[in-house]
Amino acid sequence: MKYAVCDTAVPQERRQETNEKLLYLIDSGKAGEYGISGGDIYNLYTGDGGLHGLRRQDYENYASYSEAKKEIENGQFFTPPLLCRLVAEALSPPPDAAVADLTCGAGAFFNFMPAENNLYGCELDIKAYKVAGYLYPHANLVNGDIRSYQPPVRFDYVVGNPPYNLRWWVDDGEKILSQLYYCRKAAELLKPFGILAMIVPASFLSDDFSDGTSIREMEERFSFLGHVALPSNAFSFLGVRHYPIKLQFWQNRGEGIEVQPYHIKVNRFLTAGFDCGKEAEWISEHLLQGAIKLLKKNRYSAVRELAKEKELSEGFLYQVQKMLYQIKCHPKLKESYAKCYEYFYRFCTETQPKDMKYEEWAKKRLTEAKVLACLKRTLQKQNARPPQDKIALVKRDYDFIYKGYSGKARRQIPEEKRAPVPMYEIVSSDGAWEFPGYERLVRKKQREYVGQNRPFATMEEDPEIGAWLENFHLWDAENEEEIRLNEIQRHDLNLMLQKRYGLLQWEQGSGKTLAGIASGLYRMEKQNVHHTWVISPAISIRNNWDEVLPNYGLPYVFVERLSDLEKIQKGDFVLLTLNKLGTYRRQIKRWVRRYGQKLHLIFDESDEMTNPSSIRAKSVLDCFRRCRCKLLTTGTSTRNNISEFAPQLELMYNNSANMLSWSPRIYHYERGDDFLSSKVNPYFGQPIPAYKEGYRLFTASHLPEKITVFGVGQRTQDIYNADALSEILGKTVITRTFPEIVGREIRRIHQEPVSFTQDERAVYQMAMEEFRKMRENYFASTGNSRKDAMMRLMQQITLLLRISAAPDTVVEYQGGIPTKIRRVVELAGQFENEIIAIGVRHKVVLDSYKAALETAFPNRAVFAVTGGTTSFAQRRKLRKTLKESGNGILLCTQQSLPSSVNFEYVNKVIIPEMHYNNAKMSQFYMRFVRYNSTEWKDIYFVTYAGSIESNLMQMVMAKEKINLFMKGQDTNLDEIYDRFGVDYDLLSLLMYREQDEEGNFHIRWGEQQIA
């Protein structure tokens, strides 16, 4: 017994006032201040029963009076302590048994139960619920309707005094007596052989004729154990002088149980003043003894049998049994035994709900790992400190909150201090916040926020950083010269080093590697950073960083295997490829955490994480999102659309106050409709959330309609919420073009359109009109007709692009050397005394050009390079070999030279096969346009006029408009046409897709229908 029972009853006329005073003391947390104990509240709070205040003479008949009374009282007549004690002593549940009262009121039965942790209660009335929560803070209580009560465990015992004779609607539209519904719910929540003990009106199930249907329903669910008549004046303390009641016992049915039918005859009659101990012993011996033995015998064996039916991993069941035994034997943990066992029971018995999708079920269902984790957490509590009656302000990961260290303390927290205060709200607003003990931290966070959010355009150089950069120099051992930063580079780095996070968007060839080295050395020397990690694609790490760092005499560790992590010393540069990061993700994350995040991250070629679903993007975010300093470097932060910037933004700012969503509205196109709709941004003024939800929000805030090969001009390419995006870019990204860094423009872009011959046009037209006949020669079937149909259009586009690059690579072509290849050969011939580079995209196209070039120039060296056949080391050696050739031809796939292999001495670059965006193509041709280049660089785009390449060029132009906005340049398409040398009427050459009246799709080309 937790609280001693007082025999003195509260006078009927003072009950209402007493209840209200006690509730005030509970709500305000002042009960202790006025000397009111939990025992006082247990004995003095009597609930709403008998306090309706209605008079019989005010109603036409007793039925109306009774209904009005029920509506106010809602059946709330608390069970007298003597009857609660009788039930508890008769059942004698062990401490590890799960006991529930499904309409618990203020928890009258709970006072006599052995283990508070294993008590479960549901109560609709908020006042009674508050009292029960105060009296039994460790019990598992829910404020709600019994009809929607779904506890996480099943019970050994259900006890209760349900509301009497209320008519309740249930799910199937049936109206049922409240006490009968209580029995139904108990049967649903009890374990097999579990016992139900409840106090009901003497009239309940008292007539085998009028109650026959209800009796049969009970017999289908339970085995009847017996019932005892109770004194009719039991509720006199609530103003009810005479009301016949009885105590019934039922056992939930299980396999192998000998079912006892219901009998109306009462087994025993109790009168006022009965001896509780003696009567409880009689009930236990004559009515419950066999049922309790059956429950104990089958309580856990049934679960073990269920577990054996599941496909469990080896050793799992042994681990569970071992940990459950340890919990049961430990004096501090044994009260948690029932809850842990019920968790295991749920794992053994749960099934997928019919209305739940499998994907959702796979996330929510219990697994072996979840079960073991639950048991381990419980075992860890054996050394936990006892609860303390104190309230303290605590800082969590992303907010501050007042925390109560006991149930009593939690109830005493003022309402206005219960809600957490997010960190982003504290640092991003001008409000005066008071957080005792955390003033210094808050001031630091606010200073960092203000510094990080200053636009680069308004910042001035820091003299101390400026002096360091002025003196910064490296010795180039290969070329025997001193390397220094120029004025523009020093200015940008000065501003970048004043912040912890930023993106250096310098065009290719502008010295990003040198800037990264300077940034790493400064932070390790001046800002107490242990190491500088350099993450980049393998070709950049191996052909650039692994070359320049030893050349400059700088200490570094190249992590190629896990043992290399042990070699890292303070002040080292740590090189790691994106592929290895994905392989060693878990170990590196642990290593980074060990050093307290005191690391500087340089993510070179950060546009490699533009796809947030890729392994490399997830790995970089997982390992380095909490680093102290981060510098991202890339020539272009986007390739195709603005949403590609979101993962880089998340890496820098970690979804903190520095990346708040200030877009007032978000946009989307309705499915199957061209109508653009918008709605208010639900995250306005809050950090952009992490992962997919944040990417969707960023896209809906800023992303224009994606351009497809067939969708040119059908929807606008507006950038939505451009001001909000410009604000983010202004404080995050420093953009420089190659001419800005170098001080001059040395690139010239030339368009070289060629025309189809009759044979070339014939095979091109065949690919458009008779693609189904050609398809099987170039594309394998997936084995799924539906998937094949979905891929048909993209495969047709791919084949058209291949024919446009080199028509002779398809077997249907009957002509000689294609026009485009002849034009490339002519250009190569014009530069017979110069080294030239030719970049294609596919090996089969490369082979065709190689054959033509070797035939045309038998005395001229042709160097063919692909990623699959030429190693990194061979590509590095090629620099010297190609230069020594004098007039060699470098024929390569564009992706084999995407970064870090530089040929600054090559002045003529020919691109006969286009990529889907200029970002990818510029990564190739900027290998030849370098910081130390002095001569003009000519880039030639050779395309078939009137082919699908016209569409591809228009798509590149439109994407470039978006990319230039990301670089701080708001320009129109006409200017981009001039920059790329596009001087013909492109729109008249475009192809697009249309649908005819029969619903079939066709490709149209200009004004002429081709297919």
UniProtKB/TrEMBL annotation:
- Which biological processes are named by the entry's GO terms? methylation
User: CDD domains in the record, alphabetically?
Assistant: AdoMet_MTases (cd02440)
- GO MF terms on file? methyltransferase activity
Catalyzed reaction equations: a 2'-deoxyadenosine in DNA + S-adenosyl-L-methionine = an N(6)-methyl-2'-deoxyadenosine in DNA + S-adenosyl-L-homocysteine + H(+)
Keywords per UniProt: Methyltransferase, Restriction system, S-adenosyl-L-methionine, Transferase
Q: What class of enzyme is it?
A: transferase
Where does the Helicase ATP-binding domain lie? 493-655
Q: What is the official name of this protein in its record? A: site-specific DNA-methyltransferase (adenine-specific)
In its UniProt entry, the species of origin is given as: Solibaculum intestinale
